[in-house]
Amino acid sequence: RDLKIAKALMSQYGGPDSELSATLRYLNQRYTMPDEKGKALLTDIATEEFAHLEIIAAMISQLVAGATVEVKSEIFPSA
Question: What is the percentage of the chain residues whose pLDDT exceeds 90?
């Protein structure tokens, strides 16, 4: 269990320059593409970013396993 690393990973999961931000940017940009190949490419990239989110979530889950609710609320204040 490493709560400091879990907290750092949370910013990578949902911070301003996070995987979630990148995913949403790619999904939004696909609607402005004039051709189908461009749309398909951006959809594929966004799908890969979703996979990164899944990996980071699994890592965070493993890092906080066994932590008390109080400790988790310090790391994830909005949870």
Answer: 53
